[in-house]
Give the backbone structure.
Amino acid sequence: MKIAILSDIHGNHLALKEVMGKIRNLKIKQLFVLGDIVGYYYHPDKVIKLLKSFRKEMILGNHDIMLKEAAEDKFKAKKIKEKYGSGISMALKSLDKQTIKELTSLPSVKTVEIDGIRFLICHGSPWNRDLYIYPDADQSTLRKCTNYGTDFVLMGHTHYPFVYKYDKATLVNAGSVGQARDTGGSASWALIDTSRKTVEIKRTPYETGKIICEVKKEDPDHPYLHEVLIRNSKETVKQKYVIRNKKA
């Protein structure tokens, strides 16, 4: 079976639409969604609609937690908007109460078995949803991530993709669909083939112009939100992810 690993979509339905087109072309039926459906950008309702027809396992991200906090506390909502922009406040307007409840009630960590292969899916790290695990993390941290008795450990959160192999386990950071931070205008996701037990980081380009215009209109005081969407995008950038093969 082929499984698509998607993380950190962040309300960017334009990026997700292009990714879903690739997923359909590859006849992928199973998705793992590693958190942060909402935040930063403005159309989580369209994101959820795009994901709806697929079989999927989903977990909670830190921005999904912010959605719950903002729904419950107006002061907290104001602080989140000041720091991260209008993504969360617009999610509150576009998502109905039942959808918000379902989204914010997801587990933080989940173990799934498919075709005899065990997956641990998390957002930041298996032991801390908010911990950033970057490609250049120290070996002890990376090895700790693989020490959960599963064949794969899947994560997102950093928006930087990589693959790390240690002993019999493979750690995969799928990067970000909605806000890749190494190469703008290129959605990052991962593809796992259970029949071959392989993983591949995928890149799917998308047009950023429309969402950049939205950011400039809705969040003019948060230039990072549109600048990151074109970071390095004018260069010819080869796939950037780290593969390390280590054995005990």
